[in-house]
Amino acid sequence: MKRKIIQTSDGSSTIYLEDLDEHYHSKHGAIQEAYHVFLQSGFFPFLKENKAKQVAVLEIGFGTGLNAFITFLEAQKLGVDVLYEGVEAYPVSMDEINLLNYSEQLEAQNLHADFLKMHQCEWETFQSISENFQLKKRKQFFSEITDNTVFDIIYFDAFGARVQPELWEVSIFQKMYDALKPNGVLVTYSAKGSVRRAMLEVGFLVEKLPGPPGKREMLRAVKKA
User: Fold this and answer.
1) Is residue 86 one of the residues assigned to a domain?
2) Predicted local distance difference test score (pLDDT) of residue 152
């Protein structure tokens, strides 16, 4: 499958899959989308509402590591302890990682080594990226997830339903619901009606939020206690 690094509208890079006409991040701004959907709509509100100083995050689609890296950066600023698990069936190569400009665009060149460490560290076991950020990368298909009441937040960042509809079905969202603790939150860039209905079917409380640049809406789902 043909892949190339492209620049998105906010200057940050992403990977484009030509055969699928699919991007790893929004072409309207990779960093803008990541902050809006996962940090501003998920991570920050959860910390505020729960007065949490420790949080467990599951990312569905570790990909380029952008979501993990910005969560790492914000955890350093806030002094929050993060246990971060990223699921990825098809890891991105280091040749591609070395072409991404996230550290530069985030003005975090002094922490670029930590971004690289996220990709170079071992899989299937927790690795310390910093004193307060532990990362476990899991090489598995989303259908193989069996966690039960483990996570506070889920970043659902799978490829879109147009190219991988099986990742947005009721069976997958049941796994997400089961994986969350009571009051846990799932956020995703998608706002499709079928996705919202699948979330509702498994028991989530679902709300539409304003989307990132280029998208009118997104979804946030809560597993109520």
Assistant:
1) yes
2) 98
